[in-house]
Structure formats: structure tokens, C-alpha cells
Write a structure and sequence with these properties.
CATH superfamily of one domain: Tetratricopeptide repeat domain
Distance between the termini: 110 Å
Largest sheet: 4 strands, antiparallel
Pfam family, one: Sel1
Keywords: Signal
Structural class: alpha+beta
Protein name: Sel1 repeat family protein
Helix content: 55-70%
Length: 462
């Protein structure tokens, strides 16, 4: 052994055996300063310990470099420090090093290497690492996909009190994801995670309570859990709260309250909430009626591939409500909704109804628009002149005998020598009752209004 190496060993031995109490006190002081945000003091206390080889101090200094806290941000230096502490057996450093490899921060991304370090920390009892290893086995990331192994690791993390592990294990049981389906066990794990504050678990457990799946049905408790989840910002729970208030399920029906919850979820990008909020704006329920805002919300939903959003947006293009009417664009949106992996059950029939009133060239153009559309994008521009559906409709489709009377206005009193009628319209769809008792449903025509600079609906005369 060289003289320099012997000297290093002697110094290291002195640091271990001569002043361990001082080192422990310095480490505690450094960690306390770090946690309180006093990074200058933390650096002062930790640096000598790092130089002496203290793995706990080394891991904390690595965190400081990784996030630029009290020192210049330097992911490469953080990796070197994590590596030293991890190889010395520090579980926190093993977890942190694994996350750096999984994201490719400061080092070439390697899910395989990340799995190795998560595995070491998981074997050491770290619940978060057990959960991460479970996720990797569940999805086959850096390791072979193995749902049974995923469940085992989630179980270890759950037993260690990790709420996210409890939720993932609960989901596997509730939905039978690679293990035998057990809704009771699923609800039990989701309930634990919900009680532990996991927002997604609160939402999912609330759903199980609402539907009596794996647990006794309890609408009041469901509302309570969804509210807790919503307060933590969970978009799904906020959407759920909106549906409860819109339909009066477990709460007093309140369209205004529904709109507020839908708005929160819609602003977070929840496609179904965007669609539902659009319907409230279109109908003027709980909010001021605003067809332009309805069209904007339907568009946001439609761009995400939501079938109801695409269908509703198509209807607005068909009728020219909140947008410039164009039956070709309407056809394109319906074509997307009808051709999705999970097609909208109404879109196919509505697409064919519009197709029957378009020329072959117009249908081909609509197909081109939908074929070239990409998720997240607006629909492309049609190369054809905008097609007004009312002008395309044959007389038999403009004037039809209704088989129901609920939407039609009252029959007017007859006047000698004059045909009288009462008319009521919902956007472009009008319902007319004549003095003879005859009832017809028809499409109003669009007429340009130079004063408002937009198309208005013209229901016509009797």
C-alpha cells in the first residue's frame, strides 16, 4: 500500500473514530438548515462532511446541485455525488440516482439502470422505490412486463404506508389488471389511499361508493370524497362534482354550481368537462347563454378526440350556431366521431344524414378533412364554398310531419281567410303548429345580417 493511501486511511479512521459526535451534530445542523431553506448554512455544514465521505451529507449536497439550491445547478455533479452515496448503500441516494437515470437528467437515459437502482432501494425497504419498481414491472419499462411482480412490489409499498402504492394495488384488484379481479380488496386499498390523502384514490374510491362497487353504496360519502379530491385539484373529481350538481345526484340540483365545477376541470384540459360546459353555455343553464363560448369549448373537447365534443361541434357547424355554417366541416367532425376506436353511438347515423344531403365532391372533401386531421389540432380549411345545410336540404327533409307533440307550440286560433301558425325554434331547428292542427319540424334558413356582421336564422312566415 502506498504512503499516500496509508495516510488517507489514517485520516479517514481518525474522522470516524475520533469525532463521530461532532460529525453527527454537523450533519443534523446541515440537514436542519437545508430543510428551513438556509442553503448557505447547509452548504457550510455539509461540505466538510462530504469531503470526509459522509454518505448522508453527500446525498443532500447532490440534491442541492440537482435543483440549484445554494449552489449553481449542475446535474452532472449531482450524478457523481449520488453515485458515490448510492454505491455506499444510502437508500435515498439510490432512489435519487434511479430517478435521474429514468429521466435522463445529467446522464444518458437508461430505464434498465434506473430499474437496478430502484431495485436496490426497494430491497432496502424504501416504499417509494417499491412503488416505482412496481410501475416499471406493470408497464415493462426497463424490465420485462410482469403484472404479478408489479402487484408484489405495490403490496410491499402499500404495506409500508405509501398511498400511491395503495392506490395502484387497489386499481389492479378493482379492474383485474394482471391479477384476479377482487373489487372488495380493490375498494379496501383505495379507501386506505384516499384516507391517506391521495387525490386520485379519493376520486376513484368516491366512484366506487357512488356505484356500490366493492363497497356498500353511499352517495353522501361519495360526494365527500370527490369534494376532497377536487380541493386537491383532481380534474376528474371536479368533473364528477359538476355532473352531480347538473343532475342533482346526492346534492341539490344547481346548474350554476355545476358550471363552476365544470369550468375548473375544463381549464385543466378535461375533455368531457369542456364538452359538458359547452352544453350549459349553448342552453344558457347556470351561465349566460353564449353560443360562441359553447363552440369554443366544443372545439377544445373535439380536438382531444372526445366523441361527444366532436358531435356537438358538428351540429353547430351544421346549424351555423357560434360558427359559420358549413355542412362539409360538420361531416368531417362526425366522420371522426364515428370512426374512432370507441365510436360515438349517434355519430354514424348523423354523419349519414348529412352525407345524404351533400354532393359526392362535398363528401370527398369532408373525408379529406377528417383524414388529414391530427389530435390536438383544429380542423383544416375546406377547399369548397361553405355549404349551408338548410339550402342543401330537399323539401321532404325541410318539412316533415312530427310523430310527437312535446316540442311544438300550441295550436293558434283560426282566422277566416288567413293561415295562422305558432313557431318555436331551437337554434336552426324550428317547430311550427298551424291553425289546422298540422305540425311540422324544419330547418330555418341562414340570412346574413349586415348590422351584426353575422348570419341570423330566418324561420320564415306561415
Amino acid at each position: 500500500m502506498s504512503r499516500n493511501k496509508l495516510l488517507f486511511v489514517a485520516v479517514l479512521a481518525a474522522s470516524v473514530y475520533t469525532w463521530p459526535g461532532v460529525a453527527a451534530a454537523d450533519l443534523a445542523a446541515g440537514l436542519s438548515a437545508y430543510r428551513s431553506g438556509d442553503y448557505a448554512t447547509a452548504l457550510k455544514e455539509l461540505k466538510p462532511l462530504v469531503d470526509a465521505g459522509d454518505v448522508g451529507a453527500t446525498n443532500t449536497l447532490a440534491v442541492m446541485y440537482a435543483h440549484g439550491r445554494g449552489v449553481p445547478k449542475d446535474a452532472t455533479k449531482a450524478i457523481r455525488l449520488y453515485q458515490f452515496a448510492a454505491e455506499a448503500g444510502n437508500i435515498d441516494a439510490q432512489f435519487n440516482l434511479a430517478t435521474m437515470y429514468s429521466s435522463g437528467t445529467g446522464v444518458a437515459k437508461s430505464l434498465e439502470t434506473a430499474a437496478i437502482w430502484f431495485s436496490k432501494a426497494a430491497d432496502g425497504g424504501d416504499a417509494a422505490s417499491q412503488r416505482m419498481l412496481g410501475i416499471m414491472y406493470f408497464d415493462g419499462l426497463g424490465v420485462g412486463k410482469d403484472r404479478a411482480a408489479a402487484a408484489r412490489w405495490f403490496r410491499k409499498g402499500a404495506d409500508g404506508g405509501d398511498t400511491a402504492s395503495q392506490r395502484r394495488l387497489g386499481e389492479m384488484f378493482a379492474y383485474g389488471q394482471g391479477i384476479e379481479k377482487d373489487e372488495v380488496a380493490g375498494a379496501a386499498q383505495l379507501g386506505k389511499a384516499a384516507a391517506g390523502g391521495d387525490a386520485m384514490a379519493q376520486f376513484e374510491y368516491g366512484w366506487m361508493l357512488a356505484n356500490g362497487i366493492g363497497v356498500a353504496k353511499d352517495q353522501t360519502a361519495s360526494v365527500s370524497w370527490w369534494r376532497k379530491s377536487s380541493e386537491q385539484g383532481n380534474a376528474g373529481a371536479r368533473f364528477g362534482m359538476g355532473t352531480l350538481y347538473e343532475y342533482g345526484t346526492g346534492v341539490e340540483r344547481d346548474a350554476k354550481e355545476a358550471a363552476q365545477w365544470y369550468r375548473l376541470a375544463a381549464d385543466q384540459g378535461h375533455a368531457t368537462a369542456q364538452n359538458n360546459l359547452g352544453t350549459l353555455y349553448e342552453r344558457g343553464l347556470g351561465v349566460r347563454q353564449d353560443p360562441l363560448e359553447a363552440a369554443r369549448l366544443y372545439e377544445l373537447s373535439a380536438r382531444q378526440g372526445d366523441g361527444d365534443g366532436q358531435r356537438n361541434l358538428a351540429r353547430l357547424y351544421r346549424d351555423g350556431v357560434g360558427v359559420l355554417a358549413d355542412a362539409v366541416v360538420a361531416y368531417a367532425w362526425l366522420n371522426l366521431a364515428a370512426s374512432a376506436d370507441e365510436p360515438n353511438k349517434h355519430a354514424l347515423a348523423e354523419r349519414e344524414q348529412i352525407a345524404a344531403r351533400l354532393s359526392r365532391d362535398q363528401v370527398v372533401e369532408g373525408q379529406r378533412l377528417s383524414r388529414e386531421w391530427k389530435p390536438g389540432q383544429a380542423m383544416g380549411r375546406s377547399k369548397l364554398k361553405p355549404v349551408l345545410m338548410a339550402e342543401q336540404a330537399p323539401p321532404s327533409m325541410q318539412l316533415t310531419q312530427a310523430s310527437f307533440t312535446g316540442r311544438f307550440p300550441a295550436r293558434p286560433a283560426a282566422q277566416a281567410g288567413v293561415t295562422t301558425c305558432n313557431t318555436r325554434c331551437e337554434n336552426s331547428t324550428c317547430y311550427r303548429t298551424y291553425d289546422s292542427g298540422k305540425q311540422v319540424e324544419y330547418q330555418a334558413r341562414q340570412k346574413w345580417n349586415p348590422v351584426t356582421n353575422r348570419f341570423d336564422w330566418d324561420a320564415g312566415t306561415c
